[in-house]
Amino acid sequence: MTTPGLRDFVLEVPTGEESAEDLLPAALAALSQVFTVTQEAGAPGARRRTWLDTFDWRLYRAGLMLEFEQARRDGRLLLSRADGTPQAEQPVTGWPPRRPALDLPPGPVRDRIMVLIRPRALLPIVRAFSTVRVTRLLNADGKTVARLAAEHITVTAVAASPTAVGPTAAGTTAELPLRLAIAEVRGYPGQARRASTLLAGVPGVSSASQGVFTAALTALGRHPADYTSGVDAEITASMPASVAVARLLLRLLDTLEQNVDGVLRDIDTEFLHDLRVAVRRTRSAIKLLGEVLPADLAEHYKTEFKWLGDLTTPTRDLDVHLLGFGPMTAQLVAASPADLEPLRAFLVRRRAREFRRLAAALRGPRFRAITDDWRKALLEIRDAAPPRRRREPTAAELALRTTGHAFRRIAAHGATITADSPPESLHDLRKRAKELRYLLEFFAPLHDPVAYRKVVGELKSLQDCLGDFQDSQVQREEIHTLADAMLAERAAPAATLLAMGEIAAKLTLSQAEARADFARRFARFAGPAGQERIDVLLEGRP
Amino acid sequence: MKIFATYNIKGGVGKTTAAVNLAYLSAADGYRTLLWDLDPQGAASFLFRIKPRVKGGGKALIRGTRALDDAIKGTDFDHLDLIPADFTYRNMDLLLGGANGKPTRKLAQLLRPLAAEYDHVFLDCPPSISLVSENVMHAADVLLVPVIPTTLSVRTLDQLTEFVAGFNGRRPEIRAFFSMVDRRKKLHQEIVRDLTAERSGVAATPIPSLSMIERMSVERAPVTAFAPNSVAARAYRALWSEISKDI
Questions:
Q1: What residues contact B78, with CB distance under 8 A and at least 6 apart?
Q2: Dihedrals φ, ψ of A306, to 5°?
Q3: Which of A90, A250, A341, A343 is the most buried (most CB within 10 A)?
Q4: pLDDT tens per residue across span B127-161
Q5: Which of A150, A208, A135, A137 is nearest to A180 (CA)?
Q6: DSSP state letter for B112
Q7: Are strands B80-83 and B33-37 parallel, antiparallel or unpaired?
Q8: How many helices (H) and strands (E) does chain A have?
Q9: Is A50 helix (H, G, I), strand (E, B) or coil?
Q10: Beta carbons within 10 angstroms of residue A528's beta carbon
Q11: Helix (H) or strand (E) holding A81
Q12: Chain A CB contacts of B79 below 8 Å
């Protein structure tokens, strides 16, 4: 039995003046100094492999690779670490699915990865088709003690690259340099080592520095982890503020546009989520930093991005309901999960309706005009010559002023909130906290990382509390609205309404818990220690 | 993991050729297969061109100072591995007798850790009735017994059946098959016909006596691999399909 894929023995003929095929006889000649070299009878074997990951590279970021190898009727999924060490394997039938996979059949690979990827779908990233010629290496008894596999690999990009610069179109193909691998025969490790030493000594043959997946990505011009929903605009402290803001807004526009295709194909819920975050950040940036942009431009796009944000809300709200459906039914004590099934069916129907509306608008002229014209306007600002007469603030100055102001507003507003304040005062504070968070993220490259992490850590804790408070209220109100709508459509059995009542009661409880925790979290964020943290961040002094 | 053992008290009845060819056919069907050459003469190892040598000898394996796993060698065929013979196996009775735990269950115990790695294990046993063969009978799920169609051989099969029936608890299933059948001999024909009809547990496929089977020692490969369309290979395939359909 052969143990395939010993990485140490993977060798590669680099592309150069000599073609890889020309080097093969030299490699075989080197091996025949020690072994009897005999070509495996029959036609070359074929391998079909596909590498998969989520759109935001969750497996790659966790140091994992997922490969599907197609066999005649079915195939197998192979999970390995980035260095090729196998982690889990499972056979799969009826794979790959027609649509990007939101789930996998039960098995060890599924057990390992679902917790990492959910609720994202697995997308094919690269396909590889190879023809493999096997040569047996025999000892003096005529026994096969190692095998040499020469693999011609053609790779194809499946998903288009999300990067705005140098996009790789789906369907782009590339030939990888011929790969030679020595496969060990069990019980003969020394012979395999010997064979690989002989190969390594052949001029033009070098040790492979990359696995097939990584080599394929390089050949196709893709970079792993080339999508992130984070704000990582290239700004510097001394840059004119208008240029920094334009760069920031362009980066947000990139993220927005990268997600449109995934939203329209309804691949998974997170495309819409990331698109909405990009819209929200854009709106906040226009509101908080728009002073450095031409006034009419800021005003116009304030309206346009509000339209876009509002357009996406109904579908996202329904996605959130459906994503939380499992955990929600698990909380039921009096009612049974089956009681809520009519609610789920109702949500699915509504979601389909709302999604059609959203997709039509995203394919429409208003959306196209927003993205195209906004990009043009921002590029002009980014590339404009610096003004001669008027001195414009720098990015650092803008960051200092706006971030400091946002912090002081939260501190002042939060201090007025008491146990008797209406819920709206906490909702309002949540918005201000979100704005501060965005400002911090926008200008993150200008801040000291340690000071930044401290401020964001406490802010996040406050935001979580305010989020729990508001979400519980909103969801409870939505359950009431949904109950009315279901009654109107005669889609609400009594058991379902009772179960929904139980959920609403639980939400009231969790809202009360969040409220009770508010004062403590606010004090940690905006009290003397919090003030000191923000001073260190903005002015580099306690 | 299903364990098959080719066993007969007599030598030269086609145990090794059956073990080698049936193991090869099992692997060709995609089953992860291991063949353990327990015969110190090392014929099965020779047929796969593997040196009949185990580091530390039988002693290291039986005492557990060396894992069975370490002794496994890959054959030239996909899904088929072999544990080679070793000349020290001639003392295996003594080694088993001196081992910890029940001396008759030692082989079964040694094979247990391989259950996740292999679907089928074939044990090619030396001809004798000894502690080794008793171990094999306790470890095996199926005893494959080659029988030359003579009255004396049939009597030996009866003795074996009786011996196994006396086991407490788990007993291997006995599947006899006729081996080295000479179609020109009337006695052979009669015994094959009568016994196959009269007794359950006797395979309908006989393995004929053929020079092609003897050629295995020249080719150093299973006849089912180097001459897959020969009469001999066809006979082994028919026998394997009879055995494997009951798995």
A1: A1, A2, B27
A2: -65, -45
A3: A343
A4: 988 899 999 999 999 999 999 999 888 888 999 99
A5: A150
A6: G
A7: parallel
A8: 16, 12
A9: strand
A10: 8
A11: strand A75-81
A12: 1
Q: Does pLDDT of B241 surpass 90? A: yes
* Element holding A88 (H helix, E strand): strand A86-92
- Which residue type occupies A191? Q
Contacting residues of B for A185, CB less than 8 Å apart: 73-74
ipTM of the complex: 0.88
Q: Is the Cβ pair A1, B50 closer than 8 Å?
A: no
**Order of strands across the sheet with B142-147?**
B73-74, B80-83, B33-37, B120-124, B2-6, B142-147, B173-178
- Alpha-carbon distance of A510 to A396, in angstroms, equals 41
Nearest CA among B239, B220, B230, B237 for reference residue B43: B220
Domains, chain A, in order of start with CATH, read: 2-219 (2.40.320.10), 228-388 (1.40.20.10), 394-542 (1.40.20.10)
pLDDT tens track for A334-381: 888 888 888 899 999 999 999 999 999 999 999 999 999 999 999 999
Task: For residues A516 and A508, give the distance between their C-alpha atoms in angstroms, rounded to a whole number.
Answer: 12
Mean pLDDT of A252-272: 95
Q: Angle formed by the axes of helices A494-526 and A341-362, to 10°?
A: 60
Nearest to B74 among A141, A142, A186 (CB): A186
User: Are A144 and B76 within 8 A, CB to CB?
Assistant: yes
- What one-character DSSP code corresponds to residue B54? -
Q: How long a stretch of residues is chain B?
A: 247
Residue given tokens 């006596």 in the structure block: B209
- The pLDDT score that the predictor gives to residue A14 is 58
E strands present in chain B? 2-6, 33-37, 73-74, 80-83, 120-124, 142-147, 173-178
What are the chain B neighbours of A1 within 8 Å (beta carbons)? 32, 74-75, 78-81
CATH 3.40.50.150 at B2-244, yes or no: no
List chain B domain ranges. 2-244
Query: Which residues in chain B touch residue A143, judged by CB atoms under 8 angstroms apart?
Result: 48-50, 76
